[in-house]
Write a structure and sequence with these properties.
The chain has a single domain, classed as Roll (Pnp Oxidase, Chain A). It is built from six helices and ten strands. Strands 1, 2, 3, 4, 5, 6, 9 and 10 form an eight-stranded antiparallel β-sheet that branches. The two termini are 13 Å apart. The structure holds flavin mononucleotide. The site of flavin mononucleotide (FMN) has 19 residues, from β3, β5 and α3. The site of flavin mononucleotide has 19 residues, from β3, β5 and α3.
Length: 179
């Protein structure tokens, strides 16, 4: 089946689930790159909201993250959310890096291209296409709460672990057509 037979477009406002569930429990798969050279990973930190009057989603990545490299290169990416029955399959994408493995060939999910030629998966139930808007990299002294300070004082010892906060404008939101 082609993309338009599987998914229908909805507006960001029509995303009916709690953002806390989507981000913190269901987890998005972030996919960047183009057919032939794309990569996916599981994310958990982040959120959704409004910035520069646009609907945005934001994620957090260490500087060295391979998927982040592809986001910066193409400046577009997708967030895909799956039914729980595919949890084992999509969580596999969070177990090893695509920089030094063939995980995109090994993953037991079917690749699909959106009309904008961004990569996602047939089994997804919600796909958010994003256009890179801004990347912010706070210094260690930009963290204030006790938890945040403790977190960065440990991880910022490795420069590759410095966190980049990545905001993308939601350009299209797609929901699986239910049969
Ligand atoms: C539940 C879960 C949540 C994760 N959340 C994040 C996250 O928010 N940001 C991040 O950079 N990595 C996160 N990871 C780790 C990446 O998914 C993992 O390191 C992945 O292999 C990176 O893929 P890549 O090197 O091919 O880009 C998470 C992993 C899991 C299993």
């Amino acid at each position: 089946m082609n993309f338009n037979e599987l998914f229908k477009q909805i507006t960001p406002e029509q995303i009916s689930e709690s953002v806390f569930a989507l981000v913190g429990r269901i987890f998005p798969v972030v996919t960047a790159g183009r057919d032939g050279n794309y990569n996916s990973m599981v994310a958990s930190g982040g959120g959704m909201g409004v910035l520069f009057k646009k609907p945005v989603a934001w994620c957090v990545f260490p500087k060295k993250r391979y998927t982040l490299e592809l986001i910066k290169k193409e400046q577009v990416y997708t967030l895909s959310y799956f039914p729980d029955e595919y949890r084992e399959q999509f969580m596999f994408l969070g177990t090893k890096s695509g920089r030094e493995s063939n995980k995109m060939q090994e993953v037991e999910l079917g690749a699909i291209k959106t009309p904008l030629r961004n990569m996602s998966f047939e089994e997804a139930r919600l796909i958010i296409e994003c256009k890179l808007m801004l990347i912010s990299t706070p210094d260690a002294d930009g963290f204030y709460s006790k938890e945040a300070k403790e977190y960065v004082s440990e991880i910022y010892k490795d420069p590759g672990e410095i966190r980049e906060y990545v905001f993308g404008e939601m350009t299209n939101v797609w929901e699986k057509i239910s049969n």
